[in-house]
Structures are given as structure tokens and as C-alpha cells.
Amino acid sequence: MSAIGVVSSCSCLRPGVRLLKPGMHKMSSFGLHTAARCAAKEYYEVLVLGGGTGGIAMSARMKRKVGAGNVAVVEPSKTHYYQPLWTLVGGGAKQLATSARPTGSVMPTGVEWIKSRVTALDPEKNCVWLENDTKISYKYLIIALGISLHYEKIKGLPEGFDHPKIGSNYSVHTVEKTWKAIQDFKEGNAIFTFPNTPVKCAGAPQKIMYLSEAYWRKTGKRSKANIMFNTSLGVIFGVKKYADALLEIIKERNITVNYKHNLVEVRADKQEAVFENLDKPGVTEVHQYEMLHVTPPMGPPEVLINSPVSDGAGWVDVDKETLQHKKYPNVFGLGDCTNLPTSKTAAAV
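C-alpha cells predicted for Sulfide:quinone oxidoreductase, mitochondrial:
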């Protein structure tokens, strides 16, 4: 058995490359499918699903391990966005264009970019299926598919974004609408929401609130703004140390927090937001707004729901210490698509 615990008959594989650290599960020589041919578009030593920050970073690292031409990234998007910048775009401090790069320009040299979408995973046969029934086999698989946005789970969205006074920093299609809504604010309720699901970057829904408050102070509108943070959570933030500090800021800036309030409907034509009181299921409250920032419900990518690599909730089922899959030792998960017990953010350590 080679140093990586795999015996393969493919002459294009490089022996002696150690991808598993001590303590990780090794694979039986009979437990790993080996492709009959090593054509560039049929088999890779390392296949990465997802061309976000995590997928791009890992593809570069793996290329240094196994060599150019042996690593591929499956990513359908032609444009790579640095999404953390969108808080500043929504707050008027940056232009949306500065967050964008052509995907090809961020793909590491020597890593093949497969411009397609994964439609199914078959870890028993060590392969994935792409659009147009294309099959790609692998020795190692890294799943970095991120998290999906579900504006459609809020009645009245996404079509409500066609109206003014509403925006969301979580989508390339709506982030600039946030800044427009902030600028156009005159007087009334400014509502910022947090959904009843996991979200990526749990601090972002509050960041834009504080940026908005600062802008209205600067422009003399603060006294006319009733700023509300309506969150489905029972706390302002999940980490007590930071929650205590944030509560001081909220008190100092005279911001109202409504806990256990989950946005379920937007009536954009009437500038009304409907919230369910999670302490009283079925009981709703209607709030008029002059400005509304929506943080959408989120969940695992559709391809992972009911997938053999996922847990019952649809997240990739990995060991929290190694990121190695709990059942398939040649599969690893990375980032927001996993069931790691951390916040879904690159800042989680």
C-alpha cells in the first residue's frame, strides 16, 4: 500500500503523496474506485466542488501536493465575488464592481476549471455527475459548495425587491438596493432582519444596521429613524462575549431589538413586513417600514439534500477535528456546506 493508503493501476497517478494526516482514516485498497482511463476530463486525483474562497484556496494547496493537471474545480459561475465586501457596498463605502473578478483569473494556474454544475454525488463509486450527464471520477473529493439563499421562502419575495425601500446585502442582485434604500430614507421604521435558519456571516445583518445608523446621524436623519432589529434568535449574538458588547452599543445608539421575530412576508407595495412571533406560533405582527433590509433564510445546496454524503439536515457530515467525512474517508468537506459546530463564516476558528 502506498503512502496515501491507495493502490491504483492508473499510471498517471503520482505515488508517495500523503494527503491524510496522522489520525485520519486510511482507505482500503479495495474500497476506492479507480478509473479505467486517466483522461483529463474523466478523472482527477483531487476534485473540488465549488469555486468560492474555500474551494479555490484548497485547490491551490492540493495542486502543490499532487501536481498541475491533477486537480480540478467544478464551478458554474463565470464571476467570482468577494462577498464580505458586500457589507460595504450596501453601506455605500464600496462599489459592487470592486468585489468581482472573472473566475478564470482567480483559478490557480495548473488547476482545471470545469465550468459546470454538480447534479449528483456517488461516493460509493468515487464519482460525481455534472450537467449533461457528464461523469467525473476522483481519488479524493473536497466539497466546498457553500450555502444557498432562499428568498422565496418569504412570501412576497424575491419579487418585492422590484419596489423601492428594500434591499439585501446577501445577493449580487439586491445589495445595491440596500444603499439606495438607506439614502432615500426620510422618516419612520428602519427594520433589519435575521432569519430562523443558519446564515453565513451571522454578524452581517447587524453590520449594515450600524452603518445605516451612522449614515443617518451624519446626514441629520437619525432623530427621524426608529431602528429595529427583528431577529428570530433569543439573543443578539450567539457568542456571549460579543453579545454583551453589542448590547452596550445597541443601548447607546437607541436601537430596538425584537427577539423571536421571524420575517415571513413582505408586502412591498404597502411597505409592510410581517413577522411571526416564534414564542407564539401562528401569531404574526405587521410592521410598517420606511426601509427594510432582509437577511434571507438559508440552507444546504439542493444537490446535498438527501445525498449520501450529508446528514439528515442536508449538511456534509464531517469530523469536526479533521474535516474528513465520517463514512467516506476519501471525501472532505469545507466551509458553510458542512455540519461543523461553528458559525458559517470564514472568520470561524
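The helical segments are 53-66, 86-90, 103-106, 175-184, 204-218, 240-252.
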